[in-house]
Every structure is written in structure tokens, then in C-alpha cells.
Amino acid sequence: MLTSDQALALLSAAREECARVGVPMSFAVVDAAGHLVALLRTDGAPWISTDVAQGKAWTAAAYGMPSAGQKTKMDSLPNFSTALSAMTGGRFTPQPGAVPVYADGQLVGALGASGGTGQQDEDVCSTAVTACGYATTAD
């Protein structure tokens, strides 16, 4: 389980990294069940980016893998992807930009970003997760 303090630490690390990269972003931290724990929109980030970051984080938590992996799987299955999005109330967001958060090999949540390219979003999240002492894989 991610505490609110741990979620805020992830947001702080993500904010520092996006400032270093020079791209305004929004970040969402969700628990292992995809429930929102903390949300941050940095100055200049697009208004829609908070919703997108949350969807990407939900997707990473749901599958225990970076949200980019779902994009790869869904590229050839657009109808199924649309159906999954509808079934999950729009939460399923198969786009790069979120990573799971593992502590001691256990999935505890995910960190998602939006505002940069998908790769920038994912890189910032990965950096923040590892900076806070977590892993993005169960190993």
C-alpha cells in the first residue's frame, strides 16, 4: 500500500525531473487497485493532462507493467481497446507514460504522467520511482 506521504514523495521527485527536462507535466499516483492517491499539475501543463496521467497510471497498476506495454498489445486490437476503455469507464489508457511501483517485489501502485511525449512521460516516471527507492518491475 502507498501512503499519502509516499505518494507525495513520488510527486515531488517527478516534479523535479520534469523541471530538469523542461516539460510541464501532470502526475497521478494510484494504489495497486487503481484508486487515486495523489495528483499534481505543474505550472503550464495542459488542463487535460491530469485526466490522461490518471488513466495511464490506472492502466499501469491494472496490468503491473508500463502503460506502453498495453499500447503495444492494443495497436492491432483497436476494437478490443475501445471496448476495454468503455468497460472501465474510460480509465483504460493504453499509451506510454506510466510505470508500476513495486516495493519488495509487490505491486503497491503506479505513477502516470502526461504533458510531454509518451516517452518523456514514462522516463520521468521511471526516474521518480527509482529515486524514491522503488522498482518498476517485480524482480
From TrEMBL:
Pfam families on file: HbpS-like
PANTHER family in the cross-refs: SLR1406 PROTEIN
Name the UniProt record assigns to this protein: Heme-binding protein
Organism: Geodermatophilus obscurus (strain ATCC 25078 / DSM 43160 / JCM 3152 / CCUG 61914 / KCC A-0152 / KCTC 9177 / NBRC 13315 / NRRL B-3577 / G-20)
